[in-house]
Specification:
alpha/beta; single chain; 297 residues; Rossmann fold; globular; 10 helices; eight-stranded mixed sheet
């Protein structure tokens, strides 16, 4: 092949690569660059009878042993999206970060507005947790060491399941199975609603205080799982007061709570800390890892 033809071939290849990159969303690109050699993924498991694609989950297992326990603590991760959007397929990078620390990770989808309204997405979340408790030992997870974790609207779901026992009780899940709750930039105390879609999706509840996780800190602290609340001080989407107020109420109730207001981080950068390129500063992934280790028992 002549020099000119080689240059032409390289140019065509470069254009194709750049075109593929341009067609990818930032999340798709991050996940495309996320190594998967250290995990095993079992995808598209229905956690409830029926064919609704938003009632399915993925399970991620570490393939490299971390620690000595045969059964690993389990993280059920709920993604954000204002209760209106999102996909479990976008969060490989979160699962990879946690499996690297030796945890089994479950990432469920859940139904969103306008298909459903509050509290149906909470019921989906509780059903996914019930599936996890019943099945996770098949994937190397310890059913008695479940941690609920979420970002943004997903943190709201995780908090509600951790603080209001009714949802898990309806699925015969004992609260003793929930060892902890990790909230990243979560809305826990966000009345009054201001966005039209948020007003609409919560309109099925007359007493809006019941939609707020902070309202459920009244029960005895002995029944409240340990909590880790992380929030960026630059968050303009979900204001830090949500985590500040919830941490205050949990402390007042005598619950075990840790709270970090992370300098310089905003609503999206806090979850971006789970990507390989950003997790090394220890602000988020190391804190989550240490919290789970301290509370797994």
């Amino acid at each position: 092949m002549s020099f000119k033809k080689r240059i032409l071939a390289v140019s065509v290849l470069l254009v194709a690569v750049l075109g593929a990159v341009a067609a990818c969303s930032p999340v798709q690109l991050v996940n495309a660059l996320t190594p998967t050699s250290g995990l095993t993924k079992t995808a598209d498991i229905a956690y409830v009878a029926g064919n609704n694609p938003r009632q399915r989950l993925d399970v991620f297992q570490p393939t490299v042993s971390v620690g000595t326990a045969s059964l690993k603590p389990v993280v059920v991760f709920f993604y954000g999206g204002a209760w209106q959007e999102g996909s479990r397929s976008d969060y490989l990078f979160v699962a990879e970060a946690l499996t690297q620390r030796g945890y089994v990770v479950v990432v469920p989808d859940y139904r969103v507005y306008p298909e459903v309204m509050y509290p149906d997405f909470l019921r989906d979340g509780a059903t996914a947790v019930a599936w996890t408790v019943a099945n996770v030992e098949r994937f190397g997870g310890d059913r008695s060491k479940i941690f609920l974790m979420g970002h943004s609207a997903g943190a709201h779901i995780a908090a509600m399941l951790a603080l209001d026992p009714d949802y898990l009780a309806a699925n015969k899940v004992p609260m003793t199975a929930i060892k902890g709750f990790v909230g990243l930039a979560g809305p826990y105390d966000f009345l009054p609603f201001t966005e039209p879609n948020v007003i609409a999706l919560f309109s099925s509840e007359r007493d809006l205080n019941k939609t707020q996780p902070i309202s459920y800190v009244k029960r005895p602290a002995a029944w409240i799982p340990a909590a880790l609340l992380l929030h960026g001080d630059k968050d303009k989407r979900v204001y830090p007061k949500n985590s500040i107020n919830l941490a205050r109420e949990l402390r007042a109730a005598g619950a075990k709570v840790e709270f970090d207001l992370i300098p310089g981080e905003d609503h999206l950068s806090i979850i971006a800390k789970f990507t390989r390129v950003l997790r090394g500063d220890g602000k988020v992934v190391d804190r989550v890892d240490q919290f789970i280790r301290d509370n797994a028992g």
